[in-house]
Each structure stands twice: as C-alpha cells, then as structure tokens.
Design brief:
Distance between the termini: 29 Å
Radius of gyration: 16 Å
Structural class: mainly alpha
Order of helices and strands: HHHHH
Low-confidence stretches: none
Helix content: 40-55%
C-alpha cells in the first residue's frame, strides 16, 4: 500500500505519522509486549463515525463521488478498502456494485 503525498508540510507529517503507526501494527509491535493478542487504540481523528451503515460509511469515505468516478482507472487505482474476512469483502463488493448504474 502506498500513501499519497500531502499538499502541505502538516499533511505530510500526518501521513508520515499514520504510516509509521500502520507499520507498527503490521509488525506486531504496537502493543509490546503482548502474548499474541493485543488491543489497538485507533486515533479518533481517523475513525469514520458519521454513518448509519458501516459499509456505506467506509465506501463513501474511501470513494467520495464514486458515481462520477467509477469508470476512472486512476481514481479506483489510488484507493483500497482492506477487510478482515471474505464475508466482509463480499458485502463491500455487493454494496459497491449496487452503486453502479
């Protein structure tokens, strides 16, 4: 996964901090020491909280203005939704396909 470059120095610092946080999670070092399970606190500023349906909230946050960009290769290529199970992947795919005309 590649994080984009911000347009301001502050945005670049936020992106760098977020990427380091993700890397620590991926390496299993965010809650050291741990016994194989750990609780990870997600910073409030990156939570998606304004939604009724969680899949709708995630899709609208990740793919803003999807209805006008679903044929735009670069738009689609620059975004991704990660899911923990294939069941969730199927639910997200079904939702997104339902948005297409």
């Amino acid at each position: 996964m590649r994080l984009t470059q911000g347009s301001t120095p502050e945005e670049n610092k936020e992106i760098e901090a977020f990427s380091k946080w993700l890397l620590l999670i991926g390496e299993g070092r965010i809650s050291e020491p741990n016994d194989g399970t750990a609780e990870i606190e997600i910073p409030k500023e990156i939570l998606i909280t304004d939604f009724e349906d969680p899949i709708q909230g995630i899709v609208e946050s990740t793919y803003p203005d999807f209805s006008n960009n679903y044929k735009n290769y670069e738009y689609l290529l620059s975004r991704a939704i990660l899911a923990s199970t294939l069941e969730i992947v199927d639910s997200i795919n079904d939702y997104v396909l339902g948005l297409m005309p």
